[in-house]
Amino acid sequence: MAATAPGTTVQRVVLYHEDDPLRLVCGRTLAPVEVAYTTAGTLNADASNAVFVCHALTGDAVATGPDGWWSTMIGPGKAIDTNKLFVITPNLLGGCRGTTGPSSDDPSGNTYGLDFPPLAIADLVTVHRKLLQHLGIDRLHTAIGGSMGGMQVLQWLLQDHAQIERAVMVCASPRLTAQNLALSHVARRAILDDPDFHDGQYLRHGTRPARGLATARRLAHVTYLSEDGMARKFDRAEPEDRDAPPSAARDWLAPRYDVETYLEHQAAIFLERFDALSYLYLTRIMDAFDPFNNGAWTDPVLTNATTRAQVIAFSSDWRFGPEHSVAVRRGLRKAGLRAVESHVIASPWGHDSFLLDVPEYLDRVRAFVNT
After folding, report:
1. Does residue 7 sit in the same domain as residue 150?
2. CATH number, domain at 89?
3. Catalytic residue among 278, 351, 352, 353, which?
């Protein structure tokens, strides 16, 4: 076990072994598979208060506590109240924060690199369900996730609704648009074209594609914010030398505005905690997700489901905007789920709103989870 923050301990468990490997959607198998996860709160006697948190693209197992990426949502007295609920948060398959992924060592002791098998959202959910089995929990009080985490909840609901009593999907999408695919492609190209990438074996070369990964992160952060949110967050203060710019072009081209400095800071801290291979794999997983087959899916798998679902979008999110949540709701109802509520929350902060203290949003989740 490794302490990551006061009151937060990451646990690790090997869920799949060579004699019982994980069978992937792509047809390949994977073993061993280790999963890093945290828990918060206390599981009650009948294991009826378990909440499973599925994290977004660059998240990890630490969602609660001072350094938790979802501390606005989860904790004592919060919308997901750890005084009442037992919260499980794993790092997902393919990640780089303790769970087996492309930067892990293969059975021979070498880094997988691009020899790591292609993954699908369904594979992530299969591992989540295996973790739940390991913990001795049959049915979840709530499964919740934002962005890519919401995709996992949606897949889980379609895969085995009997395990979920309440499903909360925030800023989720059932199918990426061409614009989203294009943005992901540009981010991946920045990594793949970095001369330090070495065809995915950069760890063996003692390097890392830091320039490409930093560029991918800068681009992503622009898409997570709205124009209104950026205008509120950053003052477009003119440089002191506006009328007499530096004589050297190198100085003139350096970051001079608040938003530029912000993006440089975000890129720098991201390089300290994330791996380029995981970024490549996880973005590609999102690209391929299409559980409703572009609206043509007609299997009524949820007709007898007792699960209740809540779908939430934000007014200023242009990455996975309200139209994506409409498609989630429409697909679930077409699949036979009757209890689906949907909300569009007014917020100026774009896609990042799901991580922030937006009172109406948190109140909606609190009411739904406590009903």
Report:
1. yes
2. 3.40.50.1820
3. 351
Whether 73 and 221 map to the same domain: the answer is no
Q: Report the alpha-carbon distance of residue 272 to residue 287 in Å, rounded.
A: 25
* Helices H / strands E in the chain, number of each: 10, 13
Q: Catalytic site residue 55?
A: no
Q: Which residues sit opposite 146 in a β-bridge? A: 170
Considering 55, 317, 325, 342, which one is annotated as catalytic? 317
Q: Which of 103, 147, 316, 342 is catalytic?
A: 147
Q: Judge whether 297 lies within some domain.
A: yes
Distances (CA, A) of 177 to 95, 318, 345: 24, 11, 21
Q: Does the annotation mark 363 as catalytic? A: no
**Does residue 106 sit within a domain?**
yes
What distance in Å separates the CA atoms of residue 158 and residue 121, rounded to the nearest whole number?
12
pLDDT, one tens digit per residue, over 46-91 is 999 999 999 999 999 999 999 899 999 999 999 999 999 999 999 9
CB 161 within 8 A of CB 138: no
Active site residue 147: yes
Q: What secondary structure letter does DSSP report for 91? A: P
pTM metric for this prediction? 0.94
